[in-house]
Write a structure and sequence with these properties.
By secondary structure, this protein is an alpha/beta fold. Helices cover about 40% and strands about 15% of the residues. The strands form four sheets. Strands 6-5-4-7-10-15-16 form a seven-stranded mixed sheet.
């Protein structure tokens, strides 16, 4: 399985997801600003993976703070954390990771600066290993929902590349296959960044799991033909009421699934659930550069001067969601009460 992100020799190494599947290249981040740039430029993407990257970026920043006094060290660390939190607005795992690192530094402030640096590095590594364990637990809960012989539709990439490893939505698929079930996957291409075409298809082919790539606008056709048994997607933020923010196009797939009486599942760690956000309308939606729509690999494929809008995410109301799969178990409606129970 691909290694999405790693800490090596006080550097953060990430596979460059912009280059896949044609090239397997790695980006080396030596400071926190390069981690911020990698997050913004989609070198690394996927809410859980962004959270791990943010934690490691903060640890990198902490190592380079040149003071032995605790108060100025913490002041500079807060600046680094604020910059990191602004890298991308929708994925709540980023803010969750930043807050976790800040809280740890505050609790351990009496340990001294050099010890604090070591603590922050260790915590960022711990978060990577925790994420993989969480995904595997999620997979064990979610595989119960998939029938042997099922064909699953997924949108965007919610696999090992979107996490510390193993995956959320694809983690459920992997767990079902590991349990001996025969599962096939239909992967939406996921315009405009083609995470499904480039990343999901590549991951599943590497694992030997049957995958069929379809265009985003073909999902309804295959549902109508009876070819899809369930939909599983990941999430970048889940509101307290169960509304789900995920890659743009997810809402469309959820509506189609409801129309065709196909279960629509969301797989995400508890850290993706934002209990401070009451409903989906309150989730900030990132707007990406128009060039991602008007160009492909820096090559223009649209008329010059055309206006393009590029929201990165949409919100699927909870009424379209059959279940939310987490490492703590599976929650069904009413989500507001049952997510809290988890």
């Amino acid at each position: 399985m691909v290694e999405t992100i790693a800490w090596k020799d006080n550097q953060v190494i990430m596979i460059d997801q912009r280059r896949l599947p044609l090239k397997e290249e790695y980006v080396v981040c030596k400071g926190y600003t390069s981690v911020i740039r990698a997050i913004k430029e989609l070198v690394i993407r996927g809410a859980p993976a962004i959270g791990v990257a943010a934690a490691m970026g903060i640890a990198l920043g902490a190592l380079k703070i040149r003071t032995k006094k605790t108060a100025p060290f913490l002041a500079k660390l807060d600046e680094i954390c604020r910059e990191m939190e602004g890298a991308r607005p929708t994925a709540v795992n980023l803010a969750w990771a930043v807050n976790r690192m800040q809280d740890l530094a505050t609790r351990k402030r009496d340990e001294g600066v050099e010890t604090l640096k070591a603590i922050l590095v260790a915590e960022s590594k711990r978060m990577l290993h925790e994420d993989i364990s969480v995904n595997k637990a999620m997979g064990k809960h979610g595989r119960q929902l998939l029938d042997d012989g099922a064909t699953i539709l997924t949108h965007c990439n919610a696999g090992a590349l979107a996490t510390g490893g193993y995956g959320t939505a694809l983690g459920v698929v992997r767990a079902a296959v590991e349990a001996g079930k025969k599962i096939e996957v239909f992967a939406d291409e996921t315009r405009p960044f083609l995470q499904g075409a480039r990343l999901t298809a590549w991951e599943l082919m590497e694992d030997g799991i049957p995958v069929t790539l379809i265009t985003d606008n073909a999902a309804g056709y295959f549902m109508q033909q009876g070819r899809i048994n369930a939909v599983i997607v990941g999430a970048d933020r889940i509101a307290a009421n169960g509304d789900v923010a995920n890659k743009i196009g997810t809402y469309m797939v959820a509506v189609l699934a409801k129309t065709h009486k196909i279960p629509f599942y969301v797989a995400a760690p508890m850290s993706t659930i934002d209990f401070s956000t009451k409903r989906g309308q309150d989730i900030p939606i990132e707007r990406r550069p128009a060039q991602e729509v008007t160009h492909f690999h820096s090559q223009r494929n649209t008329p010059r001067g055309v206006v393009a809008e590029n929201p990165a995410f949409d919100v699927t109301p909870h009424r379209y969601v059959s279940a939310i799969i987490t490492e703590k178990g599976v929650a069904k409606a009413p989500f507001k009460a049952n997510l809290k129970k988890l």
